[in-house]
Amino acid sequence: MIEVRSLSKSFGDRVAVSELSFRVEPGRVTGFLGPNGAGKSTTMRMVLGLDRPTSGEALVHGRRYAELAEPLRQVGALLDAQAVHGGRTARGHLRCVARANGIGDRRVEEVLAQVGLAEAAGRRIRGFSLGMRQRLGVAAALLGDPPVLLLDEPVNGLDPEGIRWIRTLLRSLAAEGRAVLVSSHLMGEMALTADHLVVIGRGRLLADLGTAEFLERHGRRRVRVRAVDPDKLTGLLRGAGLDAEPVGDGAWEVAGTGPEQLGALAAAQRVALLELAVCQDSLEEAFMRMTADSVDYRAAAA
Ligand SMILES: Nc1ncnc2c1ncn2[C@@H]1O[C@H](COP(=O)(O)OP(=O)(O)OP(=O)(O)O)[C@@H](O)[C@H]1O
Hints:
Belongs to the ABC transporter superfamily. With 302 residues, the protein is α/β, with parallel strands linked by helices. The chain has helices at 40-47, 71-74, 90-100, 105-114, 130-142, 160-175, 187-193, 211-218, 230-240, 259-268, 283-291, and strands spanning 2-11, 14-24, 28-33, 55-60, 75-78, 148-152, 179-183, 196-201, 204-210, 221-227, 243-246, 252-255, 273-280.
């Protein structure tokens, strides 16, 4: 388990992380979300002992990273897939990391196969695509078979097949009882992958809750409705005083009601419907709404 307690980090007078507390529990994928510059990478670097907190602490299994015995067997990480020696082969790179941590060559072959790089294992990394480097980074993270995994933007550069592969892998690692923390900008992907979300903005915690609960709380839920006779529907909605918004093509989106009530109302007033469906905000829409005030770099409105 990862435990972040009142963690803060400043670079000069720039506050990157501020009084941040959350836990990454075993058995689930925790998505780590936040706009650019929110402090995600800095937090992950502090968990891995690569940056020193200004105050507070980040613990893995109750200890600071530097205090862990055989750290690679305790926590696996993918931070920057580009940060590898291009002149080495994939196998050579992994053997080097493995030997430095007392891990045998057999495990290297296992993780190469697990990430789909068995055939490319003898090739030099400098010829690898970004997606292959990501896979290699994941292989290195898995080398020690660790109960905790921490991945910064692992789907970066992956094609749709690769993205699906990462999703399946992360979910199966969590199902095996591991604690998985993963950051990503791809909201649609996070909605499919993460059971739990930790959202930060400007270094501060904005939300720490289940993905479904996040959508429920921060996403809007409306009922889309369309009728054979659009004028009759307009009259019905206006007459009922509902919070309705026209969305084109004679359709409306109505807030504060459910399809059951709206359907019953239409039936009672003999308005024949063509469409009656619940539309729920996507994770991206919910996320944009909740982080609107904490975006550091945003294009000025035209
Ligand atoms: N070594 C450093 N020196 C100075 N400032 C830094 C350093 N590392 C990070 N920062 C600043 O800290 C803040 C948080 O950056 P960080 O990279 O952790 O955010 P992030 O959420 O990972 O962003 P992104 O989604 O763009 O990767 C930013 O304002 C960044 O400019």
